[in-house]
Design a protein that fits this description.
Layout: E1 2-6, H1 18-32, E2 36-43, E3 50-53, E4 56-63, H2 68-78, E5 87-91, E6 107-111, H3 125-135, H4 138-141, E7 146-149, H5 152-160, E8 168-170, H6 180-184, E9 193-197, H7 207-219, E10 224-228, H8 234-243, E11 249-253, H9 257-266, E12 269-272, H10 281-288, E13 292-296, E14 311-314, H11 319-331, H12 333-347, H13 352-367
Parallel strand pairs: 1-2, 1-5, 2-4, 5-6, 6-7, 7-8, 9-10, 9-12, 10-11, 12-13, 13-14
Antiparallel strand pairs: 3-4
Helix pairs in contact: 1-13, 7-11, 10-12
Length: 371
């Protein structure tokens, strides 16, 4: 099978996130099965225009902020249409590429989540409006396409936008391979430790965790909060943390795999408070190594836990309820340990191999191929 994937960026891009991580894990596996996978994406400083990574042929053209989506149709018509692809995967990550309008091949739309009005919380009003308007024609432009949604919440939103349920296949993200038994055998932090792991972006609403932690610290002054990750909102978060007067909040920046898993295991709870996510990979990763997740009861995040069984969901924006859940993780160790064991068992079912296999089935059906 010959597959063209179109995404704004690849996983080596400085602004790469969960969508690009998903791309590498799923389509890298498909490529290693012997299928040809090409990725058309924007370039970034220092990256070659063409290279092969994880078995994927990466074609970089234009720049992320120079209207890359307008380059895509002309480049496809001039160059890529001659490659005789069996199927095109249009990664609806921010601005859709509307591939069915210019491509002469079956298109599968891969959707992590739709930003909608959340874009206004992250960027300037002009660009947020551009994003919002860009998502409006999805149901019409892709009316003959198959959809892959990474969560039931994303599938529900697509249906609210006019996409038919029979067009949508829900394929959850997986969890990276790691020595899980060895990790689970390690002890938790000796003092209460809360963790955020992910990009530091304004729409992630990490301020809610900072404010909740301030309340937790009143009763538990030995508690700590580690923020792992980087992004353009880091300086604002650091100023807010400094203004709180708390000295047990630590920004550790981007962390490698070994340190990531060490933090996930040692934490007493992972906190994730976005108003909307496609999925929330770090929530499942935490659970896989026996750490509960406390998340906003929001699209995508609520899909990553079984509320009351593998973690807790709190109303988004309710700082006091969030603080109460964090305190509960401290004062109810037996209940927390019960949830930890259930979280490990549930998270075992989420693998990238399964996600790749299910994705292949959708691509084969869309393209009419069987091998």
């Amino acid at each position: 099978m010959r597959v063209l994937v179109i995404n704004w960026q690849d996983w080596t891009h400085p602004f790469a996130g969960g969508a690009e991580f998903h791309l590498r894990e799923v389509f890298g596996r498909i490529a290693r099965l012997g299928h040809r996978v090409d990725l058309l994406c924007a370039g970034h400083p220092g990256a070659p225009s063409t290279e092969q990574l994880e078995g994927i042929n990466i074609l970089r053209r234009g720049q992320r902020y120079r209207l890359f989506n307008y380059i895509v149709p002309s480049f496809y018509r001039r160059v890529l249409r001659h490659n005789d692809y069996d199927v095109i995967v249009d990664d609806l990550n921010k601005i859709p590429f509307l591939s069915p309008l210019f491509a002469d091949k079956p298109v599968v739309a891969l959707v992590h989540h739709l930003l909608g009005r959340i874009a206004y919380h992250e960027t300037n009003p002009a660009f947020a409006t551009y994003v919002w308007l860009g998502e409006r024609p999805i149901s019409r432009a892709y009316r003959h396409s198959a959809f892959i949604a990474v969560s039931d919440s994303t599938a529900d939103e697509l249906m609210r936008r006019g996409v038919r349920r029979e067009q949508i296949t829900v394929i959850p993200n997986g969890i990276s391979d790691a020595p899980f038994d060895e990790l689970i055998s390690k002890e938790k932090s000796t003092t209460p430790l809360f963790l955020y792991l992910g990009r530091l972006k304004r729409y992630k609403a990490i301020e809610l965790i900072l404010d909740a932690f301030a309340l937790v610290s009143l009763d538990h002054p030995d508690a700590r909060f580690v923020i792992a990750g980087d992004g353009d909102h880091r300086s604002q978060l650091e100023r807010r943390a400094a203004a709180s007067g708390l000295d047990r909040i630590e920004f550790v920046g981007w962390v490698g795999e070994d340190r990531k898993w060490e933090l996930l295991r040692s934490a007493w709870a992972l906190c994730y408070t976005s108003p909307k996510e496609g999925w929330g990979i770090s929530s499942l990763e935490a659970q896989r190594v026996g750490t509960i997740a406390i998340v906003s009861d929001a699209p995508g995040l609520r899909d990553t836990i079984v509320a009351g069984e593998t973690g807790w969901a709190v109303p988004h924006g309710d700082v006091r309820r969030l603080a109460a859940a964090m305190k509960r993780a401290i004062v109810e160790p037996i209940e927390r340990q019960r949830l930890e064991l259930a979280a490990i068992e549930r998270a075992k079912h989420y693998t990238w191999d399964a996600a790749a296999t299910q994705t292949m089935a959708v691509l084969q059906k869309a393209s009419g191929t069987t091998t």
